[in-house]
Amino acid sequence: MSGMTYTCLMSVYDKEDPLYLKTSLESLFDQTVPPEEILIVKDGHLPDSLENVLQEYCARYPNIFTIVGYESNQGLWYALKYGVVRCRNQLIMRMDVDDWSSPLRAEKELAVFESDPSIDCVGTLVVEFQGDLSNEKSYVELPETNDEIEQFGKRRCPFRHPTLMFKKSAVLEAGNYQEMPFFEDYDLYFRMKKSGSNFFNIQEKLVYVRVGEEFFYRRGSFSYMKHMLHFKTNCLSKGYFSLLDFVVTAAPHIVVS
Predict the structure, then answer these.
(1) 75 exposed, middle or buried (CB, 10 Å; 0-12, 13-18, 19+)?
(2) 254 and 221 in contact (C-beta within 8 Å)?
(3) Any idea what DSSP says for residue 161?
(4) For residue range 169-189, what is the model confidence (pLDDT) as tens digits?
(5) Cβ count near 37 (within 10 Å)
(6) DSSP string, 12-71
(7) In whole angstroms, what is the distance from residue 8 CA to residue 87 CA?
(8) Residue range 93-144, pLDDT digits in tens
(9) CA-closest candidate to residue 173, choices 152, 192, 153
């Protein structure tokens, strides 16, 4: 990878499972190209069980971890906004504390940036699983090229957030993460697109995303529907997609809720 380095950005809050955090961190150190920095944002006060995991890994891997945070929980969007500006590398890889990355993930994402400097954000395909990694529930297909991503993005988010590696400068130019519950990643995509960013999705399953029953319940909840309508109304007002796109994508959520 001709000397390309990256920071892995993670947010941790008090409800996280310490065992999941360990599994996620182990997958980072198993990368064929491991991170030069892992920046952990403590989104509020953490219990001893999580603090102990962080202390253990900081001791095992000195000079790799940057731990930052604040006293009270602010939500994922705030944690990521807080973290992005503190990452010391231009390339930032996102990772959630309950997910797992294939050992080749970083190498393959870095290769895209190396082969095409015009790319600002790279994602991958994902496998959704419950409990154990072998308990696969679904496989998510996503568009590959920038043009395909743009077309797909008019109706659905063209990325899975925990798979992304992006240029810090491109995210900051687009305004960094902003408050948009459930839709932080989709909102950031539209703003990056508007500021001229280019995108790519590697057509390989390189990230395993953990889902539980609450994941599916949340998607069908009234609260989710309210936030969805707020987000899509905002997109419509800014011209991110058409009235037809709004109706076609909003209607199924309203019916389910």
Answers:
(1) middle
(2) no
(3) G
(4) 999 999 999 998 889 999 999
(5) 18
(6) E-TTS-HHHHHHHHHHHHTSSS--SEEEEEEES---HHHHHHHHHHHHHSTTTEEEEEES
(7) 8
(8) 999 999 999 999 999 999 999 999 999 999 999 999 998 888 888 888 899 9
(9) 192
